[in-house]
Write a structure and sequence with these properties.
CATH class of the largest domain: Mainly Alpha
Bound molecules: nicotinamide-adenine-dinucleotide, fe (ii) ion
Number of domains: 2
Oligomer: single chain
Largest sheet: 6 strands, parallel
Radius of gyration: 20 Å
Helix content: 40-55%
Strand order of the largest sheet: 1-9-6-4-2-3
CATH superfamily of the largest domain: Dehydroquinate synthase-like - alpha domain
Number of strands: 9
CATH architecture of the largest domain: Up-down Bundle
Strand content: 5-15%
Distance between the termini: 41 Å
Order of helices and strands: EHEHHEHEHEEEEEHHHHHHHHHH
Length: 385
C-alpha cells in the first residue's frame, strides 16, 4: 500500500523559546516588517507586549492587528488582510490560541488571493502563497501552529468552515510552555480536551497512517496523565510542558489523519450556542468513539489501552465501544467539562443541531455511515451524561 505522509512545520520548542522570536523572524525568515496578530486577552496578560518588544529589539517593524475574536469571523480576516496588503508586510507573527493563529492564516490566504475568504473554504492546493508565518501558541489545545488549516466563522451563513492547504502552513512554530503558565483553569480543561479529541479522532480517522497513529497514541497517553495535573495545579511546569507537546503531536496527527464526527458536532454546537471549541468537541466525543468501534474496534482498543482502560480478552466491538465511551466520559468529567444540560441548553434546542451536522463540509470526511437521526441519538445520550 502507498501511504501519503504530510510533512511538518519546523518547530522551536522549550521553556524560553518565545524569547528568540525576533531573532528567528529576522535571521531565518529575513522579514523586515511584520503583521503581529493577537487578541485582547493576550494583551491583558502581557504576553502580546513581550513578543512585540522582542520583535522590536530585533529591529523588525511591526503593524498590529489586535482585533481577533473567538471563532474568528470572516469579516475580521478580510479586515486584517486589507491592513496587511496596505502596509505591504513581508511576514506574519501570530501569538495566542487557535483564534489568533487561524485569523493570521486566513489573512495570509487573502494576501495574494482576492477576498472573500469564504470563496476558499475546502481543500485548496493551488492558492497563491502569501508571506512567511510564525505561530506562537499560548493554549495547549488546537495544534493550529502545526496544522494545514484554519477554521473561520462565516457570519452570513451562521456556520464555521475551514480552508485547508499549504497556504495555511507556518514557516516556523515557536512552542514555549512558559506562555501557558497563566492559562485559566477552565481554558486549560477545554483546550486540553480539544487536543484529546484531535488524537482520538485521528486514530479512528479515515486517513490514519502509522505516523499519525504513533503521534496520536503518544498524545492520548500524555494528556491522560498530565491534563488533570495541569488542571489542578496550573503552576506545574512539567505538566504545562507535557500538555503543549501533546497538543502539538495531536495537531500533527490530525493533519495526516483528519478529525471526524466529534469535531463536526463540536463545530455545529459552537456555531449555534457559542460555546468554547473544546467544550463543543467534548460533548458527544464518548458516543462518537463508541459508534466508531462498530467498524474501527482495533483502533478504539488502542485508545482504551492509552487511557489505561482495561478490555477483557474476548470483548466484542460493542463491548470495546462501551469501555471507550465510559473511559472518555469519566476523563472529560474529571476536568469538569460541562454537559449540554449544565450549559443551560434545552434538549429540544440541542437536537435541532443534528441536521446541521450533516450539512457541514467536514461531514463528508466521516469514515462511517451515519444519519442525522443517529447524531440526534448521540446528543440525547450525551445531554445530561
Ligand atoms: N486550525 C486548526 O487546526 C484548529 C484546530 C482546532 C481548533 N481550531 C480553532 O481554534 C479556535 C479555538 O482556539 P483556542 O481554544 O486556542 O482558544 P482562543 O484562541 O479562542 O482563546 C480563548 C481565550 O483564551 C485567552 N488566552 C489564550 N491564551 C491565553 C493564556 N496563555 N493566558 C490567558 N489567556 C489566554 C484568549 O485571549 C481568549 O480570550 C476555534 O475557533 C477552533 O475552531 C483550529
Ligand atoms: Fe479541535
Amino acid at each position: 500500500m502507498i501511504t501519503s505522509y504530510e510533512i511538518f512545520v519546523p518547530m522551536l520548542m522549550g521553556s524560553g523559546a518565545s524569547l528568540r522570536t525576533g531573532l528567528k523572524v529576522r535571521q531565518l525568515l529575513g522579514c523586515k516588517k511584520i503583521l503581529l496578530v493577537y487578541d485582547a486577552g493576550l494583551k491583558n496578560v502581557g504576553i502580546a507586549d513581550v513578543i512585540e518588544d522582542n520583535l522590536k529589539n530585533a529591529g523588525i517593524e511591526i503593524v498590529i492587528f489586535d482585533k481577533v475574536l473567538p471563532d474568528p469571523p470572516d469579516y475580521l480576516v478580510e479586515e486584517g488582510a486589507e491592513l496587511a496588503r496596505k502596509e505591504n508586510v513581508d511576514g506574519i507573527v501570530a501569538v495566542g490560541g487557535g483564534s489568533s493563529i487561524d485569523t493570521a492564516k486566513g489573512i495570509n490566504v487573502l494576501i495574494n488571493n482576492e477576498p472573500p475568504i469564504m470563496k476558499y473554504f475546502g481543500i485548496q492546493k493551488n492558492l497563491k502563497f502569501g508571506v512567511p508565518m510564525v505561530f506562537i501558541p499560548t493554549t495547549s489545545g488546537t495544534g493550529s501552529e502545526v496544522t494545514n488549516m484554519c477554521v473561520i466563522s462565516c457570519v452570513s451563513r451562521g456556520n464555521k468552515d475551514s480552508v485547508v492547504g499549504p497556504v495555511c502552513m507556518a514557516s516556523l512554530a515557536i512552542i514555549d510552555p512558559d506562555l501557558t503558565m497563566g492559562l485559566p483553569k477552565k481554558m486549560t480543561a477545554a483546550t486540553g480536551i480539544d487536543a484529546l479529541a484531535h488524537a482520538v479522532e485521528a486514530i479512528t480517522g479515515s486517513q490514519a497512517n502509522p505516523l499519525s497513529d504513533a503521534l496520536a497514541r503518544d498524545a492520548i497517553r500524555t494528556i491522560s496523565k498530565w491534563l488533570p495535573v495541569a488542571y489542578n495545579d496550573g503552576s506545574n511546569e512539567e505538566a504545562r510542558e507535557k500538555m503543549i507537546l501533546a497538543s502539538t503531536f495531536a495537531g500533527m496527527a490530525f493533519t495526516n489523519a483528519l478529525v471526524h464526527l466529534g469535531h463536526t458536532i463540536g463545530h455545529a454546537l459552537g456555531a449555534h450556542f457559542h460555546i468554547p471549541h473544546g467544550i463543543g468537541c467534548a460533548i458527544a466525543l464518548p458516543e462518537v468513539i463508541e459508534y466508531a468501534a462498530k467498524t474501527e474496534w482495533k483502533k478504539v482498543e488502542m485508545i482504551c489501552e492509552c487511557m489505561g482502560a482495561e478490555i477483557k480478552e474476548d470483548a466484542t466491538p460493542e463491548e470495546i465501544g462501551i469501555v471507550a465511551k465510559n473511559a472518555l466520559r469519566s476523563f472529560i468529567k474529571s476536568v469538569d467539562i460541562p454537559n449540554l444540560e449544565e450549559l443551560g441548553i434545552q434538549l429540544e434546542d440541542a437536537l435541532q443541531v443534528a441536521p446541521l451536522v450533516t450539512q457541514d463540509t467536514g461531514f463528508a470526511l466521516i469514515p462511517y455511515r451515519i444519519t442525522a437521526a443517529r447524531v440526534a441519538e448521540m446528543l440525547k445520550s450525551a445531554y445530561d451524561a
